[in-house]
Write a structure and sequence with these properties.
242 residues, alpha+beta, Zincin-like, six-stranded antiparallel sheet, three-stranded mixed sheet, 5 helices, 26% strand, elongated, binds zinc ion
Length: 242
């Protein structure tokens, strides 16, 4: 049901990408009942995503909802899978709004029933925020674990280095290729890691490394997942269970 590789971890969110995911979920989850919706990317710091629409009443007081728009934050530090959950969450709002269904609250009974059903049937992890803000402003419940793309660099003289990279495929690729070419470097491995200490390292694609003791590096990477560069546009997680 899902694409084979959901791992463009460092991708930059684009409108075509979001539209393609919406079309995909419209077909696979919402029985193609939703017409295409306008998508806007934002950089607002106050919300993850929201589904907005205008309510208009005709002379007889009959309510029409129109101008549906799905706004999604493009500075999210989320995995494609998490982004999918955010998109589906907003699509539930869209569905309820488009169908003119009444709900007890923004994330009321109708919303929750649909959410639980989708989570169960499609193995999703859609959540609702604690704040029921009427315009369906979302915030992720709790702080999500922050995953970092980490390059572990082995030098020819036996030293080890670390670099935390931005989650942008092209930049990771460039760093990987250029550092690997360097005559002092014996090899470089990429990981997706979530050790809190990684927060302390500057995140950039500057061609730098920070020397570190091997033991410390191993500790940081103990539950990290190994990444594999496929090409300039694609980085994949190596499946450890295989
Ligand atoms: Zn919501």
């Amino acid at each position: 049901m899902y694409p084979e590789f959901v791992l463009l971890y460092s991708m930059e969110l684009t409108i075509p990408y979001v539209k393609e995911r919406i079309a995909y979920f419209n077909q696979s989850i919402f029985a193609e009942e939703l017409p295409p919706i306008e998508v806007k990317l934002t950089t607002a710091k106050t919300f993850l995503a929201k589904c907005t629409y205008k309510i208009r009443r005709n002379l007889f007081g009959k309510v029409r909802r129109e101008d549906f728009c799905l706004r999604i934050n493009r500075i999210l530090n989320l995995t494609p899978d998490e982004i999918d959950d955010v998109i589906i969450h907003e699509m539930i709002h869209y569905y309820i709004g488009y169908k003119g269904m009444r709900d007890s609250a923004s994330h009321g009974k109708v919303f929750r029933r649909m959410m639980y059903e989708i989570n169960h049937t499609y193995h999703r992890h859609i959540t609702i925020s604690h704040k029921n803000i009427p315009d369906c402003t979302e915030s992720i419940t709790g702080k999500p674990v922050k995953w970092h793309v980490v390059a572990a660099v082995s030098m020819n003289d036996g030293r080890m280095g670390i670099k935390v990279l931005p989650r942008i495929t092209q930049r990771i690729y460039r760093y990987y290729i250029l550092v690997r070419k360097s005559p002092e470097v014996s090899h470089i491995d990429l990981f997706l890691a979530k050790h809190p200490i990684l927060e302390q390292y500057p995140n950039s694609s500057a061609l730098k490394i920070h020397y570190i003791e091997q033991q410390k590096l191993e500790e940081m990477l103990k539950d990290a997942e190994r990444l594999q560069i496929i090409n300039e546009r694609e980085i994949r997680k190596i499946d450890n269970q295989a």
